[in-house]
């Protein structure tokens, strides 16, 4: 922790998400948080990102060196999915105050449960970077929606965005642009199945915790299709007759839409989220005729501020680890069911 009381952040992985999202957001929260150490397997990337942050920011290719750095209080895992659990576990055992793990928490339920056990044993809070669950407008709406989670009949999630590289390029001067999705022959059942599975876990996963709030259990997937060049359209239902429609598409359009809607017996919810790479404040949420937001901070700010409170003992975890594991199980189940249905379509 610095002299002004700001917590030191160790970034494990300094790719496009860290460069275009986390570094700018942390810079705007410098009274509470600052990047103390940047680690990346590419030494030049680590050095360059650290140079943006000032001469006191250390850098390197060693996670062990980052975890041994006394200036690091909190760790953010921004590496490829397969390394999340191992790196988070190492950070917890090294005695950091709190850990942020980018989506997904793990690739398997077993790994997530193992990480949960380690976190509980050492008393280190862990959050997942599902930024919409920390959005101030969404959280304020949750205080006013009453019994909507119980009375919801239909849920609709729409994510329509231009390619990440276009937004990321505006957000910062990236060292390397995010790679596009691999070309797939969607007429081939195997490739179509893989495309649906991958896009749900890569794009829909942002709002899976929101979906699970209103559709707690998936009984079946009624239809699933892959959209070109990158996307999905899925319709699912629960055991009590409620339904959900998920549409996600990344293409060439410059008119983005990121909406989450719920219709219940007596009321409805609509949340309009800003695109991930745009610092435009919070979402705009409405319940019936009541409106909440937009607020100054967005969901990324919200998750970092909550992490700072967790690290200093000023707050309890908003989402217990059991909920984080349940979100992962739900996401994997939905992706597997949709991929199977999409292959047969």
TrEMBL record:
Residues 8-129 form the Gfo/Idh/MocA-like oxidoreductase N-terminal domain. It comes from the Bacteria. Pfam families: GFO_IDH_MocA (PF01408). InterPro entries: Gfo/Idh/MocA-like_OxRdtase_N (IPR000683), Gfo/Idh/MocA_Oxidoreductases (IPR051450), NAD(P)-bd_dom_sf (IPR036291). This is Dehydrogenase. It comes from Kibdelosporangium banguiense.
